[in-house]
Amino acid sequence: MLILKSFLSIVVLTSFALPFPALAQGFLNHQRGLVLVSENNVYRQRLPAKPWQKSPSEEGMTISQSLVFDNWLYFIGSNAGQVKLYFSRYLLDRDSFEQSSADFLELKVVGDQLFLLKIHQDQGQIYRVEADELKPTTGLSFTSDNDIAQLLLIGSEIVFILPQENDTAVFYLEENRWLGASRLNCQEPRIFVKPQPLLICQDGEVYLAQSSDTWVSQAVSLSQTAEADIVLFGQDFKESNLFHLLSDKWYSFVIDPPEPETLLATKVVGRRILLRYSDGWYELLYQDQEPSLVKAAESESELVASGNSSSIFLTGEEKLLSEVPGVYEPISTEGDFNHATGTEDGYLLWLTSPDSGGLMQYAAPPSRDFRRVNPWSSTTSPIRSVKLEEPPYYVSVVTNSGRGNVNLYRSENLQNWSRITLPTKATFLVSIAEARNLSPGTLVEVTGVMSVPPEVVSPEVAYLQDAQAGIQLFLSQSRGQLPDYSGFEIIASGEISSSQAKRIILGSSDELEVMQAKSLERKRVLVNNAQTWLGMVVDLEGTVAKTEQNHLFFEATEQLFKLHFQAAKEVFQKLDRLAVPAVVDWNSSSSQIEAWAISRDFHLLSRLDKTAESDASSSAEVASKPTKTSPSSSKISAAGATEIASATPSTPNGGARPTVIAGATSEKPQPARKQSAQLLAMSLASLAAGILVSNGRRARRYFAQQISG
Fold this sequence. Notes:
Layout: E1 2-3, E2 12-13, E3 26-30, E4 33-37, E5 42-45, E6 52-54, E7 62-69, E8 72-79, E9 82-88, E10 95-96, E11 104-110, E12 113-120, E13 123-130, E14 133-136, E15 140-141, E16 151-154, E17 157-163, E18 168-174, E19 177-184, E20 190-192, E21 198-200, E22 205-211, E23 214-227, E24 232-236, E25 242-246, E26 250-254, E27 263-269, E28 272-277, E29 280-285, E30 292-297, E31 303-305, E32 312-314, E33 320-324, E34 327-330, E35 339-343, E36 346-350, E37 360-363, E38 371-372, E39 383-387, E40 393-398, H1 399-402, E41 406-411, E42 418-420, E43 427-429, H2 432-436, E44 443-452, E45 461-465, E46 470-474, E47 488-496, E48 503-505, E49 512-517, E50 524-526, E51 537-547, E52 551-554, E53 561-564, H3 568-571, E54 577-587, E55 592-597, E56 603-608, H4 610-622, E57 658-659, H5 672-708
Parallel strand pairs: 1-15, 2-20, 43-44, 46-48, 50-51, 53-55
Antiparallel strand pairs: 3-4, 4-5, 5-6, 7-8, 8-9, 9-10, 11-12, 12-13, 13-14, 16-17, 17-18, 18-19, 20-21, 21-22, 22-23, 23-24, 24-25, 25-26, 27-28, 28-29, 29-30, 31-32, 32-33, 33-34, 35-36, 36-37, 37-38, 39-40, 40-41, 41-42, 44-45, 44-47, 45-46, 47-48, 47-49, 51-52, 51-54, 52-53, 54-55, 54-56, ...
Helix pairs in contact: 4-5
């Protein structure tokens, strides 16, 4: 194994671009929402209209780095001298990698892979990070905090640059092992990734990478350099008035420098190139014309590039803005700034510094008059991070000179900012079954199908259910109307209630998010087992003991079981055997478990034929000899768990015979009056049949008497 020595300290990585930004504090985009990482906490906003939520965290933890990769959030946190890598897939969950002690951790994205450098007691290792797994690489032992910076992508290869005393070694990663690829006659290299991977050696020689084992020495030599994603620019190593530019290929310029000709710095903004000489800033105009220098500002000015455009601001005694190469116009401001960004709503300037930077200024186009817009203190509430790509815009500031709480501000137009109160309690991403067992006051986010819409139980109540459990959702009418998302999978966020009925209290309808249509399979459950299905919609099966106007009561082992069913008295009768789609739960008003029918699409499994019962009684009175006892008239044949009974046992001597009826099977429930009319028609038919049978038996008795007489 090769151990990397102290030569690494001289390496300078001048550019490495991440597909996802890595930061200590700031805003990150994730598939499941916008993320705000503060010094001690992680916050998530699912959608712009949704409230912010606090992710579970450890008390006293300090976050040093965070990034989103492949829709996983990773962050490095230290607590009580321990440094750990944490990860979260859904933003409201959190876990850490089980690993040995570490003194230093750092993440880096290279191509489409994520790597972690771990150092402990001057011994280190680089790992691939794959979702929630760490896979160690072998073949090299790392010793410096800077080692992670020397990883780069060449074509499709992951490469590590190792400077040594007299040359530079190049290694490539095959599976999880580092293998030697090439050695270059290059000392103290500076590593560039954009616009193309290359090394600039101590003597100015340039090596352009084609692969890990093919590095081509270039005909140019460079000293001072500056780079952007699409341009690398630098002064020739030997000739002070010769400059070289790399984009798709190399371009060289001979420039007559101003007097005196001391070049202090170079800057690249997009494709624009600025040079700072002793007497001030100059812009190199080279596109579509002969190269020339145009004076931009005096030497004491500082250059501030607009974060998302090629516009340039110059600070100093006179403040300037340039939107077009070579053209600079004065602007007025109310104070200093060191950051700028351009949006469709105008330019925003702001100042950040550890203890005092908090001033934010705005000018609507085409104005160049910048005015303060921040409602927070410009001196005691420094700006920590901004999110300005598109509205809504966000700014996070820290109170008490950077040592206090994070305050968040929001704006739709960059001019009017309102404060957002961030939560102090964490929200936990849990299953519905887990939510039912959490303590009152716990904030949760659960996913399930709305199985019961509002109005079935109450206008303020709906139910959420998955394959294992169900729970009540409650939204007070004073906070808005609970929407009907029945039949759709939704994400619900709220607080566990202290009520005996397990429920999630919603703060507003914004705490519900519709995902997609989804169906649920109902279980057939006997009334005596209903207490084990609280919060869930089932096909509740039982025998009717009695009916009231809008309720019926099932026979049960300990006491009658109440089912809420509109117009029940018109539809059902005593001893009916039913299976009704209903939600089962605790009713606080009656202090007992009850059920609420969610539709009228019930199954009438069996019904007692009262006419046959009456006829059986009269036949028994005239029987000359006792016969085998017939089944009890109160015993109703019932269907099995999934099928309706297809036949009933024969009953000697015309005994009471249950009539087996299949209930409604269409998805659209029939109105109560129509169902009542159907049941009445069936009852009349049974009565008519009974009369005919009775008359026939009377005739037989008459003829029998005549014959015997």
